[in-house]
Amino acid sequence: MSQIEKEEMAAWKVAPLPDLVHHLVGICHLECRVDMARLETLVELLVLEEGKANQPLLDVRDLVGRFCREMRAHLSLEERNLFPFVLAMENGEGAANPAAALEPVRKLLEGDHELEAGLLRTIRGLAGTLAATGVPESLLVRIQDTLRMLSERLQKHLYLESQILFRRIG
Of 81, 76, 87, 82, nearest to 29 (Cα)? Predict the structure, then answer.
């Protein structure tokens, strides 16, 4: 993590919670959705170019599809449950004990984070093996770059939620 990124993370520790929520949805979630759409498109293009006979490629496509479906569901869960709860809490509305009320959702989201991290590692590993299968290098590099960027953004997303948001709300 660069010095600028460290300073940004430190700033979120004291920023108003509504600002953090809006950043998570308007920047982090948006970037992840864009990266996932790009990744799915690149992998589909590769499948079209290489045909249906490349089993490692088909495995990558299936895992990418599963990961993106699960990640989109996760982001939607946050947007429909977690973030409205946080904003209501900041307005003095909601549960008398916000930490206790949030605990089931927090546990579910943290479990999702672990599963998604594992899937992403598996996809990166499979994408790395594609180089040995004769996949065109230009497209493979684009896929690997997209995976790297998505991974970095998801790590930031995870940090902002687990280490900052959840700690600040109890």
Answer: 76
Buried residues in 12-48 as b, exposed as e (16+ CB within 10 A): beeeebeebbeebeeebbebbeebbebbbebbeebee
At residue 75 the predicted structure's pLDDT band, cuts being 50, 70 and 90, is: very high
Question: What is the identity of the amino acid at 145?
Answer: D
Handedness of CA 88, 91, 97, 103 (dihedral sign): positive
Q: What is the mean pLDDT of residues 19-41?
A: 96
pLDDT at 127: 73
User: Residues, the chain, total?
Assistant: 170
Asked if 74 contacts 157 with a C-beta cutoff of 8 angstroms, the reply is no
> Around Cβ 75, how many Cβ atoms within 10 Å?
20
Q: Give the integer Cα–Cα distance in Å for 31 and 151.
A: 11
pLDDT at 51: 67
Mean pLDDT, rounded, of the chain: 85
Q: Report the 3 state secondary structure along 16-43.
A: CHHHHHHHHHHHHHHHHHHHHHHHHHHH
The reported pTM is 0.85
